[in-house]
Amino acid sequence: METIFTELESNVRSYCRSFPKVFGKAKMCEMYDEDGQRYLDFFSGAGALNYGHNNPYIKDSLMNYLETDGILHALDMFTEAKRTFLDIFKEYVLNPKGYDYKVMFCGPTGTNSVEAAVKLARKVKGRETIFAFSGAFHGMTLGSLSLTSNIELRKGAGIPLNNVVFMPFPYGFNASFDTIGYIENILNDDHSGIEKPAAIIVETIQAEGGVVVASSDWLKRLRDMCDQHDILLICDEIQVGCGRTGTFFSFERAGIVPDLVTLSKSISGLGLPMSLLLFKSEYDIWNPGEHNGTFRGNQLAFVCGSAALEYMYKEDLLNAVKIKEEFLVNFIEHEILSSYPLLKYRGKGLIYGIDFSRVPEKDVCFKVARKCFERGLIIERAGRNDSVLKILPPLVITLAELKEGLSKVKESIDEVFCDNF
């Protein structure tokens, strides 16, 4: 049936094709379509809803702010909402970890934070080249897209995407292949044909790349290599930060400190647009207004982001993530993989992927995701050929809801394998 969506909305629309319902309400880990059907959320707005839909604690802060006629738009002017956010971010995040980061508020989405990071790195080092990794996703604007490895997505640029060299991520190679050693050889070889980069940008967990987790040892070696060669290290925390892995930043497990950190998605707490860039204070060489945007001061996001940080530590959410991870891993290992040895899984905290790439049937992951949706579970695919089922529930999910969702995944896998094998 023709709808206003298909009549007017561009073909670029994406997620609505996987979840073809009109949604009207949502609360914490549940969404409801206009007919009242309930769906459990294992998608979290692609990582923008770590604290759930309409989290009462965060929403109350927003409603109180609106009722008092708080500032709604102020570009980058000083406001009470911004001051509160910076105070709380410093108290809960920067000071306890001893990070000497400046905070830069970018445009409303994560890609703008990445654009700002690359722009600043080139300005600081006076070099044009950036190293990124195969399997990476950093955004869809031209600069960020140049760092994104998906060939089909890159074609959408319509022009060459220059000044980026892709290096091998530790995935898909023989275990003996030393990817850091490979990069080191390129940097030391005056006949490599590759310019020394200003920065290397990395996701500690390649989320869209198929939930591929870099080891702590690999990340430490990467940090050391950057130091030895005067290269800035940028960590993209847009999807795997804000507590997703059981620490506020995903890189904390490796004991490293990046030079620059991109944050977006759940930093706003309630799904409102917000992105920011953190960088070591010695790199704050911007001229006033050299990188700006009309919505770089999202006042409502400041309010919700402040409440979200308070909520995270008040509810001991980081420790809860570790408890839920243990339950999730136990379920996958004993209830799913024990019956399907061709499947693999990997992840950290509350981002996990079930990998169907070794199954001969090409679209089996698609079929499983579709069956999940029919059972009332919203779940996304990722990775090469979309062969990884990505488990990404809100961090506030209860163990009962987690079990319910995982059971729907198991039932869907059982049905698909029964029909096809």
UniProtKB/TrEMBL annotation:
Keywords: Aminotransferase, Pyridoxal phosphate, Transferase
GO biological process: ectoine biosynthetic process
Cofactor(s) needed for function: pyridoxal 5'-phosphate
NCBIfam families: dat, ectoine_ectB, PRK09264.1
Coiled-coil boundaries: none
SUPFAM superfamilies reported in the protein's UniProt record: PLP-dependent transferases (SSF53383)
Molecular-function GO terms, alphabetical: diaminobutyrate-2-oxoglutarate transaminase activity; diaminobutyrate-pyruvate transaminase activity; pyridoxal phosphate binding
Tagged with keyword Magnesium: no
Organism: Paenibacillus selenitireducens
Top enzyme class: transferase
Gene3D superfamilies reported for this sequence: Aspartate Aminotransferase, domain 1 (3.90.1150.10), Type I PLP-dependent aspartate aminotransferase-like (Major domain) (3.40.640.10)
UniProt similarity note: Belongs to the class-III pyridoxal-phosphate-dependent aminotransferase family.
Transmembrane segments: none
PROSITE patterns: AA_TRANSFER_CLASS_3 (PS00600)
Statement: the UniProt record of this protein carries the keyword 4Fe-4S: no
Record-given protein name: Diaminobutyrate--2-oxoglutarate transaminase
